[in-house]
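Suppose a colleague, Dr. K., hands you the sequence of a protein chain of 418 amino acids and asks what its three-dimensional shape might be. Before reaching for any lab equipment, you can write down a predicted structure in token form. Begin with the sequence itself:
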Amino acid sequence: MTRISLRDYVPATREGRIFVLISLINSVGTGLYLAGSAVFFVRSVGLTTAEVGLGLAVSGVVGFVAIVPIGAVADHIGAKRTLTYLQVWRGAWFVALSFAHGPVAFTLVSSCLAAAEAATQPLTQAVASATTEESDRTRTMAILRSVRNIGFSAGALLAAPLLATDSVWTYRGLVLATALAYVLTAAMLARLRLTGTTTVQRKVDPLTAIKGFRDWRYLLLTGLNGVLNLHVTILSVGIPLWVLQATPVAEGFVPLLILVNTVMSIVLQVPVSKGAERQGGALRALRLAGFALAASCLALAAADGPSSALPAGVLLLCGCVLLTFGEMWQAVGGWDLSYAYAPDDRKSVYLSVFSLGNTGQRIAGPALITGVVIAAGPAGWAVLAVVFCTAGLLAAPVVRLLEHAVPGSPVPVEGHSS
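The predicted structure, expressed as tokens, is then:
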């Protein structure tokens, strides 16, 4: 087993370390907002629960539609410059959100924010990859994921005592602090020197770049990764509702499960990423993600059986641990394969297309998990386990198709060479 030291949690380059700091500040701001957003929407913006849901649904669709066009712009003017502009855009609209009132203003501002937020993840991947050498790319992305989890947790902890004051201006202050965090990260991004290639990739207008995307093999990889990314909705929606509706476990057990997931993600993401650095490691990671998520679904289904809280709680905990390993393997495999099979002159467009799977999951996932899986009971979880297992098994043939399409690919399929 590979030994892990504290140095493994520090990027190898100065630029990588600065970008990690940028991500930490960004995630603390996001954590502040997420912790108080639900209360802010009701107490300050003056929305009903239904209006919040409708506004977020509309903004989710806007974000989905905006991803690829923004990725095309990034290929035209550079990923770092585009990401910097997006952070300024987010800061400005968070200022607007702090003073918004009513469902129309909320939906408009949320949609403007969603357009930028949806494109931030693929551009972050592109810029982060340019802060380090190719051999250290996967580890750097793992460090960023761990740091983001730390930042989200720190932001939530900072927000907790402020929310207790139950003041409209306190809620607005949290949103304004989020805006400040994004403007600060934009200033730091503008001064960041990159060692890799995130300069202008191809002098083609964005509309032409979007129309020219016909890589169906990459779309297959995008779809598989989107299916595996359902773990996000299972953790945030599926497990809490399943605990309340189908198990004898008290609702206070849910925060403990979320804590287990967060701590594991912070501590173990970097060690898990080590396996993807070997030949065929990214494919193995994606396959293991499918199997781990399938096993998690079966454990959650079994939690419906016991009549007492202790065995049900143990099964839920096992399901959460398996889900977290699936989450970490999916992240590692997704990062590496999506970047490896994206052409150098169209990185941002390809990575933006790849993120459509994640964004689509956020839109369709809650309805699927609540309306189909949980509604069907243990049988629903069993069917979802089959879906995850199938996605894991399909990873190899899909990657083989990509490998044939890109001779000399740096991520060969195990036991196969181009």
